[in-house]
Amino acid sequence: LPSTLTIIGLGLMGGSLALALRSRSTQDAASHDIERSTLNVERITGVSRNPDTLAAARSAGAIDAGTDDLAEGVREADVIVLATPARTILRQLPEVGRHARSGALVLDLGSTKSAICAAMAGLPEGLQPVGGHPMCGKEVAGFAAADADLFRGRTFVLCPLPRTAPDAVDLARALAKAIGARPTLLDPEVHDRAVAAISHLPYAAAVALVNAVEGVDAISETAWLLAASGFRDTSRLAASDVDMMLDVLLTNRGTVLDWLDAYAVQLGRLRQSLADEDELALRAQLAAAQTRRTGLKF
Amino acid sequence: LPSTLTIIGLGLMGGSLALALRSRSTQDAASHDIERSTLNVERITGVSRNPDTLAAARSAGAIDAGTDDLAEGVREADVIVLATPARTILRQLPEVGRHARSGALVLDLGSTKSAICAAMAGLPEGLQPVGGHPMCGKEVAGFAAADADLFRGRTFVLCPLPRTAPDAVDLARALAKAIGARPTLLDPEVHDRAVAAISHLPYAAAVALVNAVEGVDAISETAWLLAASGFRDTSRLAASDVDMMLDVLLTNRGTVLDWLDAYAVQLGRLRQSLADEDELALRAQLAAAQTRRTGLKF
Fold first, then answer.
1. Scanning every residue of chain A, which has its alpha carbon at the shortest distance from the alpha carbon of B234?
2. By C-alpha distance, which of B153, B151, B170 is closest to B20?
3. What is the pLDDT of residues A69-116, one digit of tens each?
4. Whole-angstrom Cα distance, residue B112 to residue B189?
5. CA torsion sign, A35 to A36 to A38 to A42?
């Protein structure tokens, strides 16, 4: 089944998707990959407001054609992938709905899924919406950081809507496999609660950590001189792309607030035990965390 | 100046110190290192309550002799290094004071310095106390984890007391250099405030993070399935040795409580901005953290 594919947004995620599909085409031509019949991307169109990004993507061979006109970009596509930040996806979905041709698969790569899947429910009936979230990332953004291997071995969460046709779900699954990822079907609310715990809360914790330590300049030079790997790792996520994370937090607000509250409770318990010099209680909390953390296999 | 050296505690730190000095002796014999005259460790005695540890250290060539009797172990030593957890050091210092011979350098490797330096001030006049903290660590403990290269390239904080003779400070410095570390003189209070910020607070943040996420078992399997590198790094310190960290937190209690409060303020601000959907305020906090974190060179 030859397909034409349009990617809206050629940043880290969209750019990496294009590169990954391209490098797969090359591999397939050589290896006669058995899945070739399922997904055969004949033409990739990129949509970006930035002419430099379009030029870079074209010269890297990531896309065949580029446009800054979303309507034009999606009109002929069999598969439309929204690879912009979450709130931009929410804004772009109605426009995609107005211009996409009937039968097209509409997939997104946004970091949160409940709000986006709810918006997808408003797409015209003929379209086939599937929410998507490849579980990978870097603290860098933009097409310059795009990487054909970004998705390799990663979980690619797919959230079909009740109305989505089984064929369209299969196509989304084939797309995920084509870029080396492991597709996993998940309910949008379950996804959002999970990523809030394992991704958004750690991000918030890292941001607060960097900002808390910033407060005392008198010692900061000494502190950074001593800075060991512990601070480096615990604070790493604070370097994440601000625009993306702002969208993530604001489109997953309720769930993130719940986790922040659970986190504040744990911090408060730790503080109280230390303030009281309650060694038994303190040890119990440290030991519980150590046992759990040591048991996690990443 | 040939020296006999006694190490009390042969865990990760004490064991690594012994191995590092040994591997240096070998290097020196070959390279005629110019610093050899400053510090020439002729004999290393290990003190441990655990006969298996003593046997392992002896068979690894880390120590020449071992004993479970602190008094016997320190009596003949020119240099005494306390490499036990911080609160054990506080308990052992008076006994070291009763049995060490006049003129001996008494150095410790504890993770906090104010309480230990205060206790060192109570040592008999003839002894030469220097508080010490090599800025390195692993989440593993025990002699089995000891590593001759543990201190290589790391900052080794030294806190001499006002009464400590310059020769003794030089000897402590030479010891730090001999194991490949960079000695840095620091006030104990400044040290404790800095490590509370860059090490103890991140540890507490990681413990609370792991314990907060534990709370919701219904989603945990999904969460760990999705777990990306972000959670892994942010929570890494929670796997630290509980006994050591308990000592660290309890001997640096006031300062850690101050930082926990500063951290709670930052988390509260973040929570409030998100709850209010105050995008400007939220962006300012994320951007400040990103700028600072990106600017840190580790």
1. A234
2. B151
3. 999 999 999 999 999 999 999 999 999 999 999 999 999 999 999 999
4. 9
5. positive
- What residues in chain A have per-residue pLDDT under 70? 1-2, 24-38, 137-139, 215-228, 298
Alpha carbon distance B62, B44 (integer Å): 8
H or E element in which residue A54 lies? helix A51-59
- Bridge partner list, B132: B158
Integer-rounded Cα Rg, in Å, for chain A is 22
The token pair at A296 is 């996690």
Residue B298: burial class (beta carbons within 10 Å; 0-12, 13-18, 19+): exposed
Decide if A5 contacts A78 (C-beta within 8 A).
yes
Q: Which chain A residue has the Cα nearest residue B297?
A: A224
* Confidence at B34, pLDDT banded by 50, 70, 90: very low
How far is it, in rounded angstroms, from Cα A139 to Cα A256? 20
Does the beta carbon of A230 lie under 8 angstroms from any beta carbon of chain B?
yes
Averaged pLDDT, B257-277: 96
Q: Cβ of B217 under 8 Å from any chain A Cβ?
A: no
Going by C-alpha positions, the residue among B27, B3, B28, B148 that lies closest to residue B81 is B3
Give the helix/strand (H/E) hosting B282: helix B279-295
Query: In the prediction, which pLDDT does B140 show?
Result: 73
Secondary structure of B220-266 in HEC code, one letter for each residue = HHHHHHHCCHHHHHHHHHHHCCHHHHHHHHHHCHHHHHHHHHHHHHH
Tell me the whole-structure pTM to 2 decimals.
0.84
ipTM score for this prediction: 0.85
Neighbours of B42 (CB within 10 A): 12
CA nearest to A50, candidates A4, A20, A90, A15? A15
Looking at CA atoms only, how far is residue A134 from chain B in angstroms? 10
DSSP tag of B156: E
CB atoms within 10 A of CB B291: 14
